[in-house]
Amino acid sequence: MNTKQLLLLFYFVLSNSCNENQSTNSQVSPFDEKTVIAKVIEVYDGDTFLASYKSAKEKIRVLNIDCYETSYGTRLEEQAKKNGISVDSAYQLGIQAKRLADSLLKGFYVSLIRDYNLPNRDVYNRLLRLVLIQGMKYDSIIISKNLNAN
User: What's the 3-state SS for 40-99?
Assistant: First the structure.
């Protein structure tokens, strides 16, 4: 073998090993389909919940809304200041959003729709999805009840 052939062989071996590492490190989930019908098993707050689909469980972050926090802290203070309300009022709106999410989502099947124009996951590794309840957009319900902090 000449030097050129050895370099070519080395290149192919290296590129194949890199591809193998990439495929084993990437996170594949049944939730990655365009649309899935999943069961909500736990609600964390007005815009985040745990869903189950094909024996997999994933935390879901609802697109287009940002509900008030359900615990006191810096983030809740920022939301209150941004919207010109007291921290206690912001907290109460967060609790109302969680209660609404519990009543509409927990234990029910919802449609989770992936928007390919946006990232698949957020910085907390939650899946970002549009959520439909019997054909109604969940984010629109939250907004119509003035429970959105945006």
Answer: EEEEEECCEEEEEECCEEEEEEECCCCECCCCCCHHHHHHHHHHCCCHHHHHHHHHHHHH
Beta-strand relationship, 48-53 and 35-45: antiparallel
> Under DSSP, is residue 111 helix (H, G, I), strand (E, B) or coil?
strand
Q: Which domains does the chain have, with CATH numbers?
A: 27-144 (2.40.50.90)
Query: Using one digit for the tens of pLDDT, what is the confidence trace for 33-71?
Result: 999 999 999 999 999 999 999 999 999 999 999 999 999
All residue ranges of the chain with pLDDT < 50 are 3-25
- CA-wise closest residue to 142 among 59, 55, 49, 22: 49
CA-atom Rg of the chain in angstroms: 21
